[in-house]
Predict the structure of 5-oxoprolinase subunit PxpB.
Amino acid sequence: MTSCAAPRYLPAGESALVVEFGRTIDPAIHDRVMALDAAIAQAKLAGVIETVPTYRSIMIHFDPRLVTTDALTRALRSLETAAVARARPKRWRIPACYDPPHAEDLDEVAAILGLPPERIVELHLGALYRVYMYGFAPGFTFLGGLPEALRIPRRATPRPPAPAGSLLIAGGQALITSIVMPTGWYGIGRTPVKVFDPQRERVFLADIGDEIVFERIDPAAFDAMSRAAEAGELVARQEDLPEEFSQDG
């Protein structure tokens, strides 16, 4: 399915509907997801409770007492997404440490990909990432834009828990973790930034569609920033993008 294909409307039980725009990680597909999300918010459709945008689709939770799946589908088909103004994305500059003990799987990734560890770091640092979705666990930040040279399959079996803030790669995707959890991905670095903090006014650091750039720090800076983050600081820098923005991640 290409990014210009007609959307598919897929019932998900009696109280949710998925609108699917494609089958790949593609900025154009994600733009269509976000355009529909913005149009739904503006239209204030009866019965809609929540929308959950993802890489290539959006799930719409609704109250079946107020609207049926068929009626909601008809309403969604009639929405004019092109005329809806979307929030301008932001760019986040996030500190990242790729030195021991924060790069637990870097040497393993280098061996699998046949690249020097420092080249792995250079490639990861040099990319511009897009926040495509949150999922799997609270605050897990799924990113697009990982360089093709860093494409590595998931592990056959999960590894021991990766710490919060781990920078993971696998399956052509990049991820920032928010909590300690076993993983089938590979950890090549870590950030002191809390991408998810229920105690903070801004619970989720980035909005869906925002951009992320990683900036290298050493272990001493990581420790200092970690203490600041525990005290409630964001320790990430936000930039507003120009009105005519473009995202390639």
Summary: Confidence is low (pLDDT under 50) at residues 245-249. Residues 8-78 form a domain with the Gyrase A; domain 2 fold (CATH 3.30.1360.40). The first strand starts at residue 8 and ends at 11. DSSP finds five helices and 14 strands in the chain.
